[in-house]
Design a protein that fits this description.
about 700 residues; Rossmann fold; eight-stranded mixed β-sheet; five-stranded antiparallel β-sheet; about 20% helix
Length: about 700
């Protein structure tokens, strides 16, 4: 469930990066850095020399990990799961239809399709295919990867479809006629760039893209938002807002809720620092006057404010982590009354919220477990009560089906061992289960448990463990520890057929650490590991590892770790800072060179998380968690598998390449595999996903299942 319909439009800004892959920004940096870094040439993403280097390492890894029948069987099993027609086809309601994007063995790139509610409730719905991406890719000789579709109200006959080549963040948006099932000739079309385009009305759109010199921020996101009218050159589009070069991004958006239509502009100065404006009837920008660090969203007539810091208004201080509601128009007029609908405690945090037509739905985390409540507006304010039919255990998400039309909702429930179920309900009535994922592995004899480790500063750090019920606590169990610890993202239990099939059913223990830097206990949990406090996240992860040793679950010789993106930075640091705690490391699409991360692709947008390495005072602490600078020839490290993607235009593949090259030169036990496609997700289709997963699990099993 998105925290609100409006915020769901803001979230993609975090991941729309910039730059084409034909050249690397590294080639423009000063010679001093280049002379200090002998592997800077590996940042030339598609350069012949760099690609030759990649191919050689790929071949070595393939020869070592993929030749066995066990690998081939695992890859086949994982692909069968990913392609299974028994998966739940999750949908979004648009008008009278429920839309879904679907990939399987036959449709590798996927189908955009729709059905009616009556059909959707059937075990095997009858789907109407709107767009066949495999066919389109063949016709246009492109490897298109689906990024989404934005349909135009009230007829829903036109859509803006976004596609990317090979799964990169850079993408295109093209106007599509849903009735004729074809792209509109001379319709709206956004050329390949990192940006977006959204409907205002039938003949105009908001567009933010690379308009030319100076149009993108230092972070590589659009700096300018424009209104573009049908039939006019894009060069003549009207400028709505221009951000500054050092901002993260700018985006204009139209809210099409009947009776509440409004236009907004979001200026994202940095992570956790943004401004929201509404365009009034005179096309004047009016700022929504709340703290920049707060998340601001509007649903119909309600302004929701999620506080990341305390908000002192003189007569009252609103606590960080709280959720406030007020009437939007009254707030703009200066007469709005703020109402606290959630305030955190030491063990609770806001997970998400959303709105139906007449109610709000509140999803609260209590020690990383969901609790669902309904908020009803009354003359005395918003009244809260538990949601009827919400389960007491498991990871639960609830989202409105059509917040402008009804109080109906979808509810998903899952945990590490329970296949995901999809239920449909109406506020006030128990939901009805309509879809259920089959069991892709035999969970009999497996058990989920939650534990708490004590970090170096005494902080209580939760973690989940999946293991056999009759596990022998003698320290001999092969164990995989996973984590992330950044950007206020919470890790909650979810059903993973790949973990079950490739790890836990084979006797492996699976552990997920809820370390600081995440959002498991709200903004304060995240802020506790920002910038100069980053090492706390790694102390937490080490504490979980040590707790597993103390509980005799495993030992260093049997413990592997895995993480991707910011989680790749996490495991990179665990390897360099705590090498004696682990035997094997899977480091996926990682950040590793923290001296140059802000100069590579979207890296500048993450300085609010890590700091600015160009400022000497900040580099003094950043270098303490820069694995590329902390690895040395004189130490013994765990065995490592680095994986990344040539098409990752969010986290530069140069991070993994350079770390591999340095560790290889120093004589450490390292392997490397780079997928040519896949973007930041590492894979562009199910076949690639199955291969990459099989590669990681095969490496881990060879390291940890040894007698």
């Amino acid at each position: 469930m998105h925290r609100s319909r409006f915020r769901s439009l803001l979230l993609p800004l975090i991941s729309i990066a910039s730059l084409t892959l034909s050249a690397s920004p590294a080639m423009t940096q000063d010679s001093a850095v280049s002379s200090q870094d002998p592997y800077v040439w590996l940042e030339d993403v598609t350069g012949d020399k760099a690609i030759d280097w990649v191919k050689q390492r790929n071949e070595r890894s393939l020869n070592k990990l993929t030749k066995s029948s066990e690998f081939q069987k695992l890859e086949s099993d994982l692909l069968e799961i990913l392609d299974s027609n028994a998966r739940i086809p999750f949908v979004g309601k648009q008008g009278d239809y429920y839309y879904n994007f679907w990939r399987d063995k036959k449709n590798v790139r996927g189908l955009w399709r729709r059905t009616t509610l009556a059909e959707y409730k059937k075990a095997e719905p009858n789907w109407e295919i709107i767009l066949d991406l495999d066919q389109l890719s063949k016709e246009e000789n492109e490897n298109w990867v689906w990024k989404g579709a934005n349909l135009l109200r009230p007829k829903y006959d036109l859509a803006l479809i976004t596609l990317s080549r090979g799964g990169a963040d850079a993408d295109v948006t093209r106007e599509f006629n849903v009735t004729t099932k074809s792209f509109v000739k001379d319709g709206f079309s956004r050329p390949e760039s990192k940006g977006s385009m959204g409907w205002i009305d039938r003949d105009s759109v908001f567009i933010q893209t690379d308009f030319g010199t100076g149009a993108m921020t230092d972070s590589g996101y659009p700096r300018i938002a424009k209104r573009w009218k049908r039939g006019t050159p894009i060069e003549t589009a009207e400028v709505i807002y221009e951000g500054k070069q050092q901002d993260m991004s700018v985006m204009a958006m139209h809210d099409d809720s009947p009776g509440f239509e409004r236009n907004y502009v979001s200026r994202n100065i940095a992570f956790y620092n943004d401004e929201l404006y509404v365009l009034d009837s005179n096309a004047k920008l009016v700022k929504v006057d709340v703290p920049n660090t707060a998340n601001k969203s509007v649903s119909r007539g309600t302004l929701a404010i999620e506080l990341r810091d305390d908000w002192d208004l003189g007569d009252k201080v609103y606590k960080a982590g709280s959720l406030l509601f007020t009437k939007f128009d009254d707030f703009l007029a200066g007469t709005g009354k703020l109402e606290v609908v959630f305030e955190p405690s030491p063990t609770t945090a806001l997970s998400s919220f959303g709105f139906t037509k007449d109610f709000a739905i509140l999803n609260i985390l209590e020690d990383v477990k969901n609790r669902i409540f309904v908020l009803k507006p009354t003359d005395k304010g918003w009244q809260r009560e538990p949601m009827v039919g919400a389960p007491a255990f498991g990871t639960v998400n609830v989202s409105a089906i059509d917040s402008d039309e009804s109080n109906d909702y979808f509810m998903t429930t899952t945990d590490y061992l329970t296949p995901t179920t999809l239920a449909m309900g109406t506020i006030g009535k128990a939901p009805e289960k309509i879809k259920e994922l089959p069991s892709f592995f035999d969970a009999k004899g497996l058990k989920i448990s939650q534990h708490f480790a004590k970090s170096a500063d005494g902080t209580r750090v939760p973690y989940f463990m999946v293991a056999k019920e009759n596990i022998t606590l003698d320290g001999s169990n092969p164990t995989l520890l996973y984590g992330y610890g950044g950007f206020e993202i919470s890790l909650q239990p979810s059903y993973s057929a790949s973990v079950g099939r490739a790890w836990t059913t084979l006797g492996g223990v699976y552990v997920v650490a809820n370390i600081r830097g995440g959002g498991e206990y709200g903004p304060s949990w995240h802020q506790a590991a920002l910038k100069e406090k980053r090492l706390r996240a790694y102390e937490d992860f080490a504490a979980v590892a040590k707790d597993l040793f103390e509980r005799k679950v495993t030992k260093a010789e049997k413990l592997g770790i895995q993480g991707g993106s910011n989680g790749g930075l996490l495991v990179g640091n665990m390897m360099t800072l705590y090498p004696d705690l682990f035997k094997a490391v899977v480091c996926q699409v990682p950040l590793l060179d923290m001296q140059r991360y802000n100069k590579l692709l979207a890296g500048a947008s993450w300085m609010a998380e890590y700091g600015n390495p160009d400022i000497p005072e900040q580099w003094s602490y950043i270098k303490t968690f820069s694995p590329y600078h902390n690895v040395s020839a004189g130490k013994k490290y765990p065995s490592v598998l680095f994986t990344t993607s040539t098409r990752d235009d969010r986290v530069h593949p140069g991070h993994a390449r350079k770390m591999m090259a340095r560790m290889e030169e120093q004589g450490h036990d390292v392997l490397y595999y780079e997928n040519i496609e896949g973007g930041h997700g590492g894979a562009a289709n199910n076949k690639q996903s199955a291969f990459m997963q099989a590669l990681a699990y095969t490496f881990l099993k060879e390291q940890l299942f040894v007698k």
